[in-house]
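Please fill in the sequence for the structure shown.

STRUCTURE ENCODING:
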């Protein structure tokens, strides 16, 4: 009898172990407090989104699904947390962190208004889906302009209290220039943006110094397609306009984004100049009116492909191109000193390829290559009041090759500490020239040619701490070795931020940032650029980067009203 009972118990034990071996087991925790989450519903779906089974997490945050499949998707839902999708293989699921919903506080749901901003990890985070200003916006760029503290001046966004603002996409610097970023955001619907993060002091893993506007795009569900075609027309002295189209295709674990725009730009503006010019002890009153015209076609193409290995690991590759095949700028000047005409013909093209890989264990690596080429032809004719005449033809060009790589690593430590470290390297080679032909008159001309090589090496260490009391702080130090021509410079750039939000009605944020501004390659040349017969622009050889430090503070009242300095 005892032997039969022993055999039976052994059979039951083996049966239970077999059942457990065919189960999917995981744990849910709060992303802020790291505490287990009880009562969450976990839906098990096959790779083709077919329903398989359901489970509920226990008091320890653990859930068990007995319907094992090789590849599957978990959909985790909880009334206090944002819904999360996890793609996975295998029976053991890594700890899943759920992000609390903005309107939950100590198990009390706030129903008297939908918050659109919160302080998180030392920065302001805006939810555009409920932000009042985004309701009247037709694209993402118009929504950004309506954010508190954001100002626009001729297509350039600025942040109140910050010397310079850099726009990045999904936590990494964009390879597009300011104009291309504006075009991209104007072609992006508001509903494709998940959130916007405003940082006065960007973390070093962003590889950007100073203030940052981080636009985080939404990740599409399985088997999703969305496209848009639109056009615009403008009349200001001339007829101009353009067309653009974009689409997003999501198939299982892959996402494809394509955007193309073509704009026919025609513009005209007037500039009046009044100058008291001193020459040989005598003052001359100079008055002139300048008419500036420009017309060109601008083509932008961007395509990106992303593949998700699971919820935390993915790889992406993107291409960005800009083409201006023929741009004509004209300047017609009249006045009491000279009557002049300047024609400038420009042909530019830019190509960029970016590759990025993010792992589930906190490693983020990537690199990009940018090629830029510009050909310019300019001729100037100026007739002066004393009967003299200046005339020249000038040909110039520029080629830029830029290579950059980076690697970042994060570790979650005990007691809600987080350690980060990383490095980046960038090499730029700029070759440009300027050659004058058929020079007539008393005009200063100088043929120039240069070959600049610039390298920037950065390495950093950062620490981040979140407290259950509602306080969090971040501190980092970045070491940089910068070289250009014969200039070599070592520097250390500190950054820090502190935020406190004991309740959703009162939130405080304080940040110390370091901003570094690099002079353009053209400004560093000894060349002279003639705008007309009177106005010249002289380059300044030997310019060095400029470093500025700033301290900013913000107080957010009821997640809607922001007071800052």
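FILLED IN BY: designer on duty
SEQUENCE:
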């Amino acid at each position: 009898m005892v032997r039969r009972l022993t055999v039976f118990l052994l059979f039951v034990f083996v049966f239970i172990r077999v059942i457990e071996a065919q189960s999917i087991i995981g744990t849910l925790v709060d992303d802020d407090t790291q505490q287990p989450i009880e009562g969450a519903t976990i839906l098990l779906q096959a790779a083709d989104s077919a329903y398989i089974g359901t489970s509920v997490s226990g008091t320890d945050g653990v859930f068990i699904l007995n319907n094992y499949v090789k590849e599957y998707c978990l959909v985790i839902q909880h009334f206090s947390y944002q819904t999360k999708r996890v793609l996975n293989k295998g029976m053991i699921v890594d700890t899943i962190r759920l992000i609390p919903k903005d309107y939950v506080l100590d198990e009390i749901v706030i129903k008297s208004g939908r918050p659109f901003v919160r302080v998180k990890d030392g920065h302001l985070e805006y939810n555009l889906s409920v932000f009042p200003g985004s309701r009247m916006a037709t694209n993402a760029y118009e929504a950004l302009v309506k954010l508190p503290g954001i100002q626009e001046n001729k297509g350039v966004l600025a942040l109140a209290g910050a010397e310079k603002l850099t726009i990045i996409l999904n936590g990494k610097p964009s390879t597009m220039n300011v104009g291309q970023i504006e075009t991209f955001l104007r072609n992006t619907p508001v509903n494709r943006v998940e959130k916007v993060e405003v940082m006065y002091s960007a973390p070093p893993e962003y590889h950007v110094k100073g203030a940052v506007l981080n636009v985080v795009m939404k990740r599409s569900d399985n088997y999703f397609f969305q496209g848009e075609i639109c056009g615009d027309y403008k009349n200001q002295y001339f007829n101009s306009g353009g067309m653009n189209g974009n689409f997003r295709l999501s198939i299982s674990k892959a996402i494809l984004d394509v955007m193309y725009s073509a704009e026919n730009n025609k513009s005209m503006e007037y500039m009046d100049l009044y100058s008291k010019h001193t020459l040989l002890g005598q003052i001359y009153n100079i008055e002139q009116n300048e008419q500036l015209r420009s017309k060109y076609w601008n083509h932008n193409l961007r395509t990106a492909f992303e593949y998700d290995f699971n919820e935390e690991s993915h790889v992406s590759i993107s291409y960005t191109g800009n083409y201006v095949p023929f741009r004509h700028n004209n300047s017609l000047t009249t006045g009491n000193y000279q009557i002049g005409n300047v024609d400038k013909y420009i042909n530019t093209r830019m190509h960029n390829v970016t590759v990025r890989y993010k792992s589930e264990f906190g490693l983020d690596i990537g690199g990009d290559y940018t090629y830029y080429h510009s050909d310019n032809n300019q001729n100037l004719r100026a007739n002066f009041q004393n009967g003299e005449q200046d005339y020249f033809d000038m040909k110039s060009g520029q080629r830029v090759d830029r290579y950059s790589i980076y690697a970042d690593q994060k570790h979650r430590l005990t007691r809600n500490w987080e350690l980060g470290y990383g490095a980046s390297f960038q090499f730029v080679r700029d070759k440009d020239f300027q050659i004058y032909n058929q020079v007539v008159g008393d005009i200063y001309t100088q043929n120039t040619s240069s070959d600049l090589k610039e390298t920037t090496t950065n390495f950093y260490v950062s620490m981040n701490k979140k407290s259950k009391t509602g306080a969090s702080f971040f501190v980092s130090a970045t070491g940089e070795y910068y070289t250009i021509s014969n200039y070599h410079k070592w520097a250390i750039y500190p950054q820090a931020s502190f935020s406190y939000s004991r309740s959703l009605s009162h939130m405080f944020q304080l940040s110390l940032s370091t901003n570094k501004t690099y002079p353009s390659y053209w400004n560093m040349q000894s060349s002279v650029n003639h705008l007309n017969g009177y106005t010249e622009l002289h380059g300044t050889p030997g310019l060095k980067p400029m470093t500025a430090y700033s301290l900013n503070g913000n107080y957010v009242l009821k997640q809607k009203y922001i007071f800052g300095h």
